Amino acid sequence: MSAPTRKRRRLTICAITASAALVAIPASAAPGGGGSPFGPRVLGQLAAERAQSVATFAPSLKGEGGDGDGDGGNEADEIAEGADQYAEARTSPGVVAPGAYGAAWQSLSKLPSSKGSWRNVTDLPYNSDDPRYRDIDSNSSGGSGNVTGRMAAMAADDDGYVYAGSAGGGVWRSRSGGGHWRPISDRLPAQSTGALALDKAGRLWLGTGEATTNADAYLGSGVYVLTHPHHGTFSSRARVGGDELESTTVRQLRFGGDKVWAATSKGVWSHSTKTLKGAWKLEFAPNPEFLPGGSEAADPNAPYKNIANDIAIDPKNPNKVVLAVGWRSGDDYNGFYTKGAGGTWTRITSGLGDLPADADGVGSVTFARSADGSRYYAIDESPEQLNTNPDSGLEGFYVSKSGSPTGPWTKIADYKGLSASGSALTSSGFMPGVQAWYNQFLTVDPSDPQHVYAGLEEVYESKDGGGTWSTVGPYWNFGFSCWGIDPAKQTGDCDQTTHSDQHSVAIGRYHGKSFVYVGNDGGVYKRPLNGRQDASGHATDWASLNDGTIDTLQYYSVGIGKDLDHGGVLVTGGLQDNGQSVLRGDDRVMGSNFGGDGGDTLTDPANGCNTAEEYVFLSIQVTQNCAVNDGSWLDDASKATSFNVAPADNTTNEARFIAPLAADAKSPSTWIAGGRHVWVQTHGYAIRKGDEWTSVYDLGAGHTATAVAASGGKVYAAWCGPCNNQGFARGISVGNADGTGWHDITLPVDGTVPNRYLSGFAIDPKNADHVFLTVNGFSRQWTEGPGAGVGHVFESRDGGTTWKDISRNFPDVPADSTVITPNGGLAVGTDLGVVYRAPGRTTWQRVGDLPAVAVLQLKLGPDGTTLYAATHGRGIYSIRVRDCG
Fold it and tell me: Distance (Å, rounded) from C-alpha 406 to C-alpha 370?
């Protein structure tokens, strides 16, 4: 069989989370980044390098110099842009003050609740290598096996208990060495995990707020302790200290003496481990004037000015501490700090050995200490590398053989050496550490100070203290000689690997055997601590622990249609870094028919196998058989059953990272897509080429669509541009699908419709002039920006000419999506759950008891009796419409 022509490389998005609340802010606000956290990149050069790096298997690779998304191959720019855009929706037109989400959660919790309960639709295994779906745009056979959402933190003990902290779906516990998971943090007001750690007494400490500085990371509500983690669940009553760490991220929790130390987005803090009472102590903030309450707290750069990454404590003297501090894209304060003789924190400028002491060489840092105290290890990401080297941002791996965090440190690996260690990332443009700002973990075997596991995009292992390394968990198996697309095998003759993009690690024991557990963008995996490797150094014994009992899938969208082949309904949805899931009516395992990041979704209500899926920037693929394929397209291109049908704004980069896509409610073959232009095509799922789209309206230079909807040929399109807090502007354009009657709505300057991100429309099926609008972000109570206004839900009865605020008791929380139910009710998905206004009522109530998770899209099932919610962290849920009110 010929070499595979995989069309997708998974894409990860990133941006620093704001001090505002559980939400990101644009990376372009970061200092030292030249308007982008990645610094200058030569577009043409990078495109050529990345095309070459995957030439053996991807001449048309999406996001890597291929034809799929028109980005010219500059994945770094894609990542930054995705970061900006997710953040813009929640923060523009200004900076959001701390406490916004906490207040919103309290308000939501006080609403009356509906009588009905949500049903988890996706609580079953999701097989990314499902052999049914090996079409041209799938990543099936890559070797990741069963997956779930991003896992930001891990902890494990010697009694078989494993704890997994997800990016947006809370903390989960296994009592059987992994698998058979149960959530244990659903009662907390924040479901975003930054750190998990077990102390000597066996208590489980949780730092909320994911600190990977990526766009869909949410801030937290502080640090909590679970005294009996084998049996209990986290409670808000067990929060450590006061509100000092609200609206922060927590990257690490470290213990020394009778103290716990927290590396946060607001500096380094400490607290006694003997009592949970009393305030946290701010140990060090390099720029305290940018902290909340400081003179520069409102500055757009404030969230970047006090970032702490890790704390190293001398095993021989718990009062000797080294802080790794700095923004991963570079700032003057970046560096390592320790207390001087006068008791003040000072930067270490010499004596570190190979470990950089200059600000340009110190970015994101992770420490790990051997159990016997004889060695310290470190990973260092370099802002200078990040901003100038298209291959990698990794400065290196290091060891302090004295066991002291002050060194001297010796370099034991760089990205070129790791690339030669059996890595799947071997060529220019995408080598180990290219995302070292996002992917890092490090741990040492408790019984052997020279046995080390490290995580970047891949998992690496050294058994000789860093002298040699093996890539035990390669990025994927495509490109290796053992790979094969044969549906009778998971990944040809290759062994299973982990999902890529590593974030967390733990070592524990179960039934007397030691295991290493890794958390990444695909969930949780384990292998024996001293496992087997093949001749290439790849592990042969990885096991996915994503058995379906842990559902932390991060959906952007959901689609539902009848399953004509198997009965019932087919449910599909687009996911962060886990492609597109497809669940047939009789499935016991979900499959993945498209790879990469899944954006918006269209599904034919009459036939769910008619599906359109958006990758990024309006890169749209369509299939009319669910993309069922045995891989025969490798030898015969005519046997591909999915097709790239992107409109022209995809190739010109004039569409948002997750761009809006909709079908006319009364004419399902008429589709609307939004970039700079409003695009219409009338061939439905029979479309085969991108040139079948027609531009019916130009929203204007610099404007990009944020929401589109159509009914009976009438089209509404919301836009922003500029979309960040530098001159933020938004508007609505209305016209007909045939290109006639287009005009811009003059939104009132009195704030009737706030100057914030317009996120969704719902059109009355009986009257296309009657339309509802949802508005993202926070009101002027929390947002420091011109025209932030108040309200989140608005109604027009004259085609958008005039609007009325119908928010009433609606919580002040970002609103993401809305649908009109067949009985005339109105359901709205928010960043903290779903609210509903019953027909004939003017006030809102909470729907069910979802945890504090973002609901990015709502859709009705084919018969209108069931409401589906795409959550960004807890999978897809459904509820009967009659139970919403």
Answer: 15
Band of residue 269 on the pLDDT scale cut at 50, 70, 90: very high
What are the residues whose beta carbons fall under 8 Å from the beta carbon of 683, sequence distance 6 or more?
Answer: 669, 692
DSSP per residue, 640-690: --EEE---GGGTTT-S-SS--EEEETTEEEEEEEESSEEEEE-SGGG--SG
What span, in angstroms and rounded, lies between the C-alpha atoms of 86 and 509? 39
User: What is the pLDDT at residue 732?
Assistant: 98
- Amino acid 28: pLDDT: 29
Q: Which amino acid is at 799?
A: G
Residue pair 169/126 in contact by the 8 Å Cβ criterion = no
Radius of gyration of the chain (CA): 25
Which helix H or strand E contains 443, and what residues bound it?
A: strand 441-444
What span, in angstroms and rounded, lies between the C-alpha atoms of 361 and 347? 13
Query: Strand order in 559-562's β-sheet?
Result: 126-127, 590-594, 580-583, 569-574, 559-562
Question: What is the spatial distance between Cα 855 and Cα 851, in angstroms, rounded to a whole number?
Answer: 11
Q: Give the three-state DSSP class for 83.
A: helix
Q: What is the pLDDT of residues 193-240, one digit of tens each?
A: 999 999 999 999 999 999 987 767 778 999 999 999 999 999 999 999
Q: Are strands 569-574 and 95-96 parallel, antiparallel or unpaired?
A: unpaired
Q: Which residues pair with 311 in a beta bridge?
A: 323
Identify which of 549, 475, 520 has the alpha carbon closest to the alpha carbon of residue 126.
549
Dihedral sign of CA atoms 228, 234, 236, 241 in order? positive
Tabulate helix, strand, coil % of the chain (nearest 5): 10, 35, 55
Q: How many DSSP H helices and E strands does the chain contain? A: 5, 58
Q: Is 77 a residue whose pLDDT tops 80? A: no
**Residue pLDDT, tens place only, 369-415:** 999 999 999 999 999 999 999 999 999 999 999 999 999 999 999 99
Backbone angles phi, psi at 387, to 5 degrees: -85, -15
Count of Cβ atoms closer than 10 Å to residue 521 Cβ: 30
Query: Which string of DSSP letters, residue by residue, matches 274-331?
Result: S-S-SPPEEEE-S-GGGSTTSTTTTSTTGGGSS-EEEEEE-TT-TT-EEEEE--TT--
The CA-based angle 218-222-225, given to 5 degrees, is 120
Q: Mean pLDDT over all residues of the chain?
A: 89
Question: 514-556, pLDDT tens digit by residue?
Answer: 999 999 999 999 999 999 999 999 999 999 999 999 999 999 9
Strands 866-871 and 876-880: antiparallel
How many alpha carbons lie under 13 Å from residue 392 in its C-beta half-sphere? 21
For helices 43-53 and 75-91, give the axis angle rounded to 10 degrees.
110
Structure tokens that stand for 203 in this block? 């208590």
Helix, coil or strand: residue 453: strand
H or E segment and range at residue 86:
helix 75-91
Q: Which of 436-440, 504-508, 641-645, 726-730 has the lowest average pLDDT?
A: 726-730
pLDDT of residue 84: 59
| Spatial distance between the Cα atoms of 513 and 528, rounded to a whole number of angstroms | 8
Q: Are 330 and 32 in contact (CB under 8 A)?
A: yes
The CA distance from 274 to 357, in Å, is 35
Question: What is the distance between the alpha carbons of residues 885 and 881, in angstroms, rounded to a whole number?
Answer: 8
